[in-house]
Amino acid sequence: MILNTELEYKGNLFPSKIVKYEKNLNVLSFTAENGVVLQVTVRRDSILRFRFTTTGIFENDFSYAITKYASRGYNHLEVTEDDDYYIITTAKLICHISKTDLRASIYDAKDKTLICEDELGFHWEESYEFGGDVVKMSKTAQPGESYYGLGDKPVDNNLKGKRFENWVTDSYAYGRETDPIYKAIPFYTGLHNKKAYGIFFDNTFRSFFDFCNERRNITSFWAHGGEMNYYFIYGPKMSDVVANYTDLTGKPHEMPALWALGYHQCKWSYYPESNVKEITAKFRELEIPCDAIYLDIDYMEGFRCFTWSKEYFPDPKRMVKELADDGFKTIVIIDPGIKIDMDYSVFKEGLENDYFCKRADGPYMKGKVWPGECYFPDFTRPEVREWWSDLFKELIEDIGVKGVWNDMNEPAVMDVPGKTFPNDVRHDYDGNPCSHRKAHNVYGMQMARATYQGLKKFSYPKRPFVITRAAYSGTQRYTSSWTGDNIATWDHLNIANLQAQRMCMSGFSFVGSDIGGFAEQPNGELYARWIQLGIFHPFCRTHSSGDHGDQEPWAFGKTITDVVRKFIEIRYQLLPYLYTAFWRYVEEGIPILKSLVLYDQEDPQTHYRNDEFIFGEKILACPVNAPNQKGRRMYIPRGNWYNFWNDEIVEGGSEQWVDADLDSMPIFVKEGSIIPKYPIQQYVGEKVIDELLLDVYYKLGKETSEVYEDATDGYDYIKGRYSHRSFKLLGKKKELIIQQHKTGKFVTTYKTFKLNLHGLPFKIKKVQVDNVDILLKDLKINGDNTLTLTKEFTELHIVG
Questions:
Q1: Over 90: is that where the pLDDT of 447 sits?
Q2: pLDDT, position 782
Q3: Of 3, 202, 683, 735, which one is least surrounded by beta carbons within 10 A?
Q4: Sign of torsion over alpha carbons 430, 433, 437, 440
Q5: How far is the CA of 96 from the CAs of 20, 86, 89, 281, in angstroms?
Q6: Does 691 participate in catalysis according to the annotation?
Q7: 145 has catalytic annotation
Q8: Which residue from 112, 90, 71, 97 is spatially nearest to 240, judged by alpha carbons?
């Protein structure tokens, strides 16, 4: 008997016609003749979830990305049908499901315009090697459509015409277009006809996105396993898409401590203790503000996590306290690889309790990292995360370390193909056992989560501070992040700018780059220009590989040191402004940095801009990103903007030349803004704030600004002990009116505001506070248009 031993290759398979429809509250199920089932879940009026199975049975519905705190509920849901479609209508969307093949088309419920439609729609290919399916989705690109997001991809903001892979990868010295890279955030925003929507493909397998690269008018996404499971999020404002995605995958669980937003200094590595002390003393001597000093892997005994080198750091508790007394928080690194060593308690405990990852056939996953041969905890097991979090007791509670950065958690393995675990490594996946193919992209996220739980426990009543290199969607709930091992080049200064903007529009705002570049050595000009960009990133840290020379602010001579100091001081003055932007991010999911397209999607000129961005709500910044420049061309968004340095007013909506010598950079403030500022401090908490400076930028018309403050650390703010002030500004030809409204029980240390009035078009004749005329001499109006008044005022009239 002769058999055909060739496996039948089926190619792409498609759903057939609908034979059954069921509705269970907000879950609508459509079953096709060939066993494919589509579940459409209406989560909100503007959020629909699409979930497909090809076997008629759905696996356990479990996701590390979706937070239990996500908003739910809708105002309207109606399902009707005609000859060709089932029609799902909510208050914001109309969705047509085709009766012949399950393809979906989604329309704006208000004006019935098409937002997004399936091309081939859902299809799949059987994966004989691993079982399961390769799941695919293709959609038609609308005319003039642009695409944004996907986390830390080192490419221009607009993704149209490109193709990407999501597979968390240790990418040392990556370059422009390197893909895949450190993070997997399978979420993008589409924009056409002034309307934006988002797609979040919640699948942790190796996934791909094609934005009209392979086929000109088709965008598609697919994964090497798992489910076709995606969320459609409608705006129509881009900022709402990002805020709703952030709500779905989780806003940060708490505000960062204010010191975490200061300037941080790091190197691989500062050791021994005398070297650490020398660095910190130099900061104070040169009066360059700094809040945190970092210890890289050399602080450990033979790179064993949770140990200290007796030679380099004989008494870490004393050292950490002495640093704290001088205003420095100590941050240490912790990697996932645990050295195989029976005399090492962490290894022994992990082994005895069977906490390490295993290969498919039973042996432990063994890999080489800094300590040599290591085993790796399975962070997808709750009891392993609990054990890991308890390991931080000594570091945090006893020694007094204030923060931890998780590195190498892609997970990175040295000297093997692919630089990570083999596919057959097994994981618990919180009771949903799987191979590394499924768990790889969440491994770093779950390590960061366990680290966060440890810091939250042992830092209490202070707030935890964790940084991670690897991430999947939702990691922003637990930690901050940086963009990995970049290079000291001008191109990398540009890439850092792009990556920070892209991470913010992917729901992850607490991010920064290694200022100056990690690999190789910057010159002074590049370092100064990078600091200028870095002070506008939510996470602000210089980090470098010691192999390439020194990278402290004073390493490049006095001229550069002065420029660097000047900009770090600006960062410290703007801390209340940045903290307020953070509060909006934590409360509402609003990104801290906004690419111009996110700021003004209606202006087509913004759709391909890369360099300029909005910091918070009111400040426009643009780095000088090439050597020997005395300025640059940049696009100023629509509206009027004040030059930060000289108060010149420029009208936006066009590209303009802006002067910016080495000690300057293009910074503009939106007219009508009120920007809160603190005095310069060498570290957060060095000074008692006895007056809040408010920079008031005159505008003919209305503008609202706000400032959020609390105790800068701890959890009292959750109980209402915060201060939120909203300022309404109304400018007339001969009058400026500012109304203040305050909520919250926190009492700030300062009693007065010092108003610094910019661009006032008249000479002050009269001032009224809460309907009472104030003598000008009592207000201390100086020749420089500043005046001092009580923080309790509700209405201020300045009359010309």
A1: yes
A2: 63
A3: 3
A4: positive
A5: 16, 6, 9, 66
A6: no
A7: no
A8: 71
